[in-house]
Amino acid sequence: xSAVDPSPEHVKLDTSHSYNADKLYDFEDVFTRTHDDNxxxxxxHGWQTFGFLQIxxxxxxxxxxxxxxxPSMKKWQMILDAYNKEVDSSYKFDQIVPPTQGYLFDKIGxxxxxxxxxxxxxxxxxxxxxxxxFASRDMREGEVVHDGTDSDVVFPDAMAYKRFVFALPRKxxxxxxxxxxxxxxxxxxxxxxxxxxxxxxxxxxxxSSEEANVLPESSTSQLYYATRDIKRGEEILTDSTFRDQRxxxxxxxxxxxx
Length: 258
Description:
Elements: H1 27-31, H2 52-58, H3 73-86, E1 120-125, E2 130-135, E3 144-147, E4 152-155, H4 158-165, H5 170-179, E5 181-184, E6 191-196, E7 204-205, E8 214-216, E9 223-226, E10 237-238
Parallel strand pairs: 7-10
Antiparallel strand pairs: 1-2, 3-9, 4-6, 5-6, 8-9
Helix pairs in contact: 3-4
């Protein structure tokens, strides 16, 4: 669909529609006509005003019940195509390491003593109810485990993010919003909307800070180090502070929109 002027005065709500005039979305209208969660549908009435929680509520992500698996190359390509169309046409997958394996981990020689893909793989566990990243080899405390400097994408603004998610089918949107986080990339800089379009997006937060085994060197860094020795096959977890979904209110996306 084509982008529209995002300013509030250009958003016209059609109250003659069957939507509840007090709401900007209608679950029944969108989802009872067809049940194909892999088809891109027309964006809902008033989508330009949605905040982060409204997007997830509109797509009913909290009631989506299916076995979660790491995305296939076909799904990653679909996500990239939407990102190229709606946000940045120049962003491409790494030519050496596919997104199903991560990204090219060592771009300048033996900087991390590990050539090729990063030292983790994505897997679904717990009867398909949880995806995560798991160590592909033993790692020592202080070793670089993940470098999102080049592989993470930064959205220029909330409207770009909304155009992107509404260009995807329901299951993909629920995955993307689960993997999106906010971060300041410089001290006292603006809060940014962030995403990784590869398996590093599945870096899960720990339930407690004690469980985290990788942390960035600072709150503005995209470089994650092992905080202790990590055994092969162990899940890689970070502190939720560094993959925060509570700070959308600090971005122009907001939690509840306009």
